[in-house]
Design brief:
The complex is a heterotrimer of chains A (about 120), B (about 140) and C (about 525). With about 140 residues, chain B is mainly α. Chain B has 5 helices and 2 strands, in the order H-H-H-H-E-E-H. Chain B has one domain. Classes of the chains: A mainly alpha (about 120), B mainly alpha (about 140), C mainly alpha (about 525). Chain B: This is Na+/H+ antiporter subunit B.
Chain lengths: ~120, ~140, ~525
């Protein structure tokens, strides 16, 4: 099962990198969203996969009866999902504002902070 | 989007969702659920209400600015960690109190306070982003 | 054992002994900024109260960090694990001399920025949340310096990043949106790389505690194996991106000149140094074998960064972009220390980080004052500032000397140490690059001083006459909030230049702590380490 998931992660990374190489900001953001998911799956797989045993301890016990799934990667992935989700939301708003203000979503045309015909400083002393 | 059916149902739907989100928040200690997922449900309730009745009425309904709510959540989340200072234990060590109300034992704890903090942070932060996006859509 | 009810031996997993109240200083910096930040967030509308609250909490933060440093020097490395769990189960906060020193200097700089912000951030900026975001940024910065858990380090990076987004778009100008897009996208990719490497590391060792990782890596038969080399390369790329090292430095000059100048000052002082700190922590403490394996690559990157930074600074006429390139040149010096990796070199890198935090913030604040005096950040439109304030011209000269690494100011000593360490290691090219970069920086800063201060007026006016451009002096220049921060920072620059013993001692102690991490391990795991 792990091999299959690893191939899937590879596919996710491929798609993410392809999208991030695009010039359109929206595609880059989609690429980042997919990259986040690829990373989450990577962490999840790194915690070793088990089937259908949630890491919950029954009420009257202090220890799980059988080997359960590793809860730590789930906690890590949850943290990473929360973070990447909020970042994605923020960047989406930012990209939308940038599109409204700058009138383009192509990154090559966003040259306000670094104007193309930038003059050189005074020469000599 | 703003059909009469949707606008009539949305307030009830949002109220139910907020109620459900609190249920999910409170059962989170020992069972699936918790502050984050509860907060997301509540934030989507605000978003639905906003789509149906306009952002202005959502802002009126929640009284405080969403970022203020998030700030309050952060504040009580941090405070929940400090309680263990007075017992000489490390930061974030959980403290439990068992209250008896009419013979029913109610366990209260700092993880619960922390979870409520998380809930408020998520409601505030996601809610403010959702409302900002909805506001832009209309103009 | 499985299924046995009730009788559970908690002491196997939990620390049941009482914790001295002084150990709470470990979490105090993050806690103070978190509480202060959330309080300011709730009171955002009250624009008069904001600066008082913000500066008050930042002053408290400086005090807490000072107490923490004193305690670390008295008791050695101190550690606290969240929720009473025993390491490596719980998230550990572990402070050594390195973390405590950087945390203290960082908080002093933030306090200065907070004071300057009282004058330069208007009510709109305050309502948008300058002080809450500044405090939360410091939560991230201090947390990153203090944590002993690598996933937790990732979380603090993200805390720092999200608040820096908030600060970056404070005014919502077009130019800010443009800068924020580039800054935001590239930094997010950088942290994702960090997360990938951390995931792989967890897959290999099953732990995230830095001390535990350091032990487990050291116990390997072949610590420079292929898998670890992948992880190390990913970490290097991720932190190099954060620190704006050469081929991945382009986001910095594209964004650092766009926000309010006080925000730029905080960013230039702190953000890239957190990347360098993480690089030292991961490469020197956890993966020393991989660092040795990659030393040549790191040295090459360091040389390229040193030269790009200095040459870039020579080619700019916008002051803030020029200083942005100087930040990059400084990162090159610190990378040189990591590339050599001896105790001496790492101590040089730490001292340089301290110097760079102070001097870069001071330079951006100085740029802000120059803008107040003459209404421009452009070298071609500046001039005649010496006539307006001779004292400020002197202060700027001090800062220029310091950033170029000339004696007797704070930049001199770390550069001496780094060059010495590079030559001792047989990397003459690296030492030469540091010197050449310092020389080019001297040229760039000398030109700024001559054009902005020494000549009579801006371009196009007859020299020698006091027809300096009509300043946008709105009375801010007379306020203490403008002059106090740069005064404090310049005093520190001079102090560390004339009395370097104290900081040398601290940085040597910090470097010894990561190169020979016995004390670090012992603090986390108790006596057996």
């Amino acid at each position: 099962m792990e091999t299959g998931v690893v191939v899937l992660i590879g596919l996710f990374f491929t798609v993410a990198v392809y999208l991030m190489l695009s010039k359109q900001l929206v595609r880059m953001l989609l690429g980042i969203a997919i990259l986040g998911n690829a990373v989450n799956m990577l962490i999840f797989t790194n915690g070793r996969l088990t089937r259908e045993v949630p890491p919950l301890i029954p009420d009257h016990l202090y220890m799980p009866v059988e080997t359960t799934a590793n809860p730590l990667p789930q906690a890590l992935v949850l943290t990473a999902i929360v973070i990447s989700f909020s970042f994605f939301a923020f960047l989406l708003v930012l990209a939308f504002r940038a599109y409204q203000e700058l009138g383009t979503d192509e990154v090559n045309e966003m040259r306000i902070a670094e104007p193309e015909n930038d003059q050189t400083p005074p020469q000599g002393y | 989007m703003r059909t009469i059916i949707f606008r009539t149902i949305a307030p009830y739907l949002s109220a139910l969702m907020v109620l459900f989100s609190i249920f999910v928040l409170l059962r989170g200690h020992n069972e699936p659920g918790g502050g984050f997922i509860g907060g997301l449900i509540a934030a989507s309730a605000l978003a639905i209400f906003g789509v149906a009745c306009g952002v202005a009425s959502v802002r009126r309904a929640i009284v405080f600015h969403p970022m203020g709510i998030a700030g309050f959540g952060l504040f009580i989340g941090a405070l929940a960690g400090i309680v263990s200072f007075f017992k000489g234990q490390p930061f974030m060590t959980s403290q439990w109190w068992y209250l008896k109300v009419f013979g029913v034992e109610i366990p209260l704890s700092t993880p619960l306070i922390f979870d409520i903090g998380v809930y408020l942070v998520v409601v505030g932060a996601i809610g403010s982003i959702a409302l900002a996006l909805e506001e832009r859509e209309s103009d | 054992m499985a299924g046995s009810p009730v009788s559970v031996d908690y002491s196997q997993a939990m620390n049941l002994s009482a914790v001295p109240a002084g150990d709470w200083l470990v979490v105090a910096p993050t806690l103070i900024t978190l509480l202060g930040g959330s309080l300011c967030l709730m009171l955002r509308k009250n624009t008069d109260l904001q600066p008082k609250l913000g500066i008050g909490f930042l002053a408290l933060l400086v005090l807490a960090n000072f107490g923490l440093l004193v305690r670390v020097l008295d008791y050695g490395v101190i550690s606290m694990v969240m929720g009473s769990w025993l390491p490596p189960f719980g998230i550990a906060f572990t402070v050594d001399a390195l973390g405590a020193t950087l945390s203290l200097i960082g908080s002093i700089v933030a306090l200065c920025a907070g004071i300057y912000g009282a004058a330069s951030v208007d009510n709109t900026g305050r309502r948008y949340g300058f002080y809450p975001f500044l405090l939360l940024l410091m939560t991230g910065v201090c947390g990153a310096f203090i944590t002993g858990d690598i996933f937790n380090l990732y979380v603090w990076f993200e805390v720092l990043l999200i608040s820096s987004y908030g600060l970056l778009v404070l005014g919502n100008d077009r130019i800010q949106l443009d800068g924020a897009v580039k800054y935001g996208v590239l930094n997010l990719i950088g942290t994702n790389l960090f997360l990938i490497a951390t995931g792989l590391l967890y897959g290999i060792f099953g732990t995230l505690n830095m001390a535990d990782l350091a032990q487990k890596v050291a116990a390997l038969d072949n610590p420079a194996s292929g898998t670890l080399a992948t992880v190390a390369a990913l970490y290097f790329l991720a932190f190099a991106m954060k620190a704006a090292a050469f081929p991945v430095n382009f986001w910095l000059p594209a964004s650092y000149h766009t926000p309010n100048v006080v925000v730029s000052a905080v960013f230039a002082g702190l953000l890239t140094k957190v990347g360098v700190y993480a690089l030292i922590r991961v490469f020197v403490l956890i993966l020393p074998a991989s660092r040795g394996y990659m030393a040549d690559v790191i040295a090459l990157v360091a040389i390229a960064t040193l030269l790009t930074g200095a040459l870039g600074a020579l080619a700019q006429s916008e002051l803030r972009r020029l200083f942005g390139y100087l930040v990059i040149a400084g990162i090159g010096s610190m990378l040189a220390g990591v590339a050599v990796g001896s105790t001496l070199a790492v101590s040089g890198a730490i001292f340089y980080a301290v110097h760079s935090i102070i001097v870069m913030t001071a330079l951006y604040l100085a740029a802000g004052i120059m803008n107040l005096m003459s209404g421009s950040y452009d070298l071609r439109k500046l001039g005649g500032l010496y006539q307006k304030s001779a004292g400020f011209a002197g202060v700027f000269l001090v800062l220029g000397f310091a950033v170029s690494g000339l004696p007797p100011f704070s930049g001199f000593w770390p550069k001496v140490i780094l060059v010495d360490a590079a030559f001792q290691d047989g990397r003459a090219w690296l030492g030469a690059a540091i010197l050449v970069s310092g020389f080019l920086t001297t040229l760039a800063m000398g030109r700024v001083w001559i054009y902005a201060f020494w000549r009579g007026g801006p371009e196009g006016t007859p020299d020698g006459q006091s027809v300096a451009a009509a300043g946008t002096d709105t009375g801010q220049l007379s306020g203490a909030a403008v002059w106090l921060p740069i005064g404090i920072l310049t005093a520190l620059v001079v102090y560390f230049g004339l009395q370097p013993e104290w900081m040398l001692e601290l940085s040597t102690q910090g470097a010894t702590g990561v190169v020979e991490p016995l004390g670090y391990l012992r603090s986390v795991f108790g006596g057996e380490g």
